[in-house]
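Entry:
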Amino acid sequence: MYSKKAIFQEHFNVSTMDEAFLIYFESLSAMGKDSSYSAYTKLQIPFEAPCHPPLPSWDEVEQGFVEYLKPNPMAGKAFRVGAFMVKFGNDSTIFQEAESLLFLQANSQVRVPKVYAAFTRPILEWTRHFLIMDYIEGETLSGEKWLSLSDTSRSIILSKLCEQFRLLRSIPSEGYYGCVNRHGWQPWFSFLCKMQPGPSGPFDTYEEFVAALTSSAHLIRAMAINTDDFHPEEVALLSRMGSELLRCNGRQPVFTHMDPSVGNTIIRLIPGPEGEEDWEVTLIDWAESGWLPAWMQSWCLREKLTMETTMHDPNGKESDQYVEYVTKNLEGDYTKQLQLFDELRKGILYGLL
């Protein structure tokens, strides 16, 4: 078990939290401005799919970009141009998402947007990365929408969602933990953050992956509260994290969607074979995806999914029932892992969010 001083020394080469914080914020600022991507993708940029419909011109993309940001410069990072969705960003996750989508198109039957182009352009004093893909027709799922649906509609949608996860998890494993084509994630990435330069991962073994998780948890907690050292309760919880994960089931790497929120779920009402009610369900936003232990999809669902509405408890029974239905249809019982990560979230603020 590390002391805070040892963690600050490992990640920042300093011994106090005040010194670490200065380096931390400088590093985050530098990472946010870093538009390099070669260490995170094998995709040749600019990329253009061999076959595609006529794509929007750069003038159309630029106009859409400017119009999209006019009302709110801090808006999300995707906008529609005709039959296409254009996603943009400042870091390599745009191209990692393109690579993941191309992998899924070639190696699975999972419903994903088709990727047509990926490129880099300077715009509004920044170097931006762009991804052009299919616009998925339908409606973004939300708490209000879910509450408006009949029991029959909900049952069909949940069944179709479970089928997407089944198809995703049936892709033959490539034997490592990381992004597509043996790449790692950005060093500031969520539950795998670190302050040393270079990607987080890939990891050849489950033990290496767990070591990275626990190292990240130590770092996050050390930076959270300005105390001389960890409290005994924190020490006990962090120690349990490593030992319990090394003993748990579901260690094999499976392809995982790490942000399966309702906001990343598109539903579309379609007629069934006999004219009956049917639904298409498509998961979008694959920037956070890759080969992870089988138990992690359940954790991602638990942490990222809420049926929050303006009129309903965001942690109410609809969210719980939705998550419970989907996780029960994933092979394996990962109750112990979920209980552990609930404790980690409450005890040391460690999680996906």
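The longest strand covers residues 115-123.
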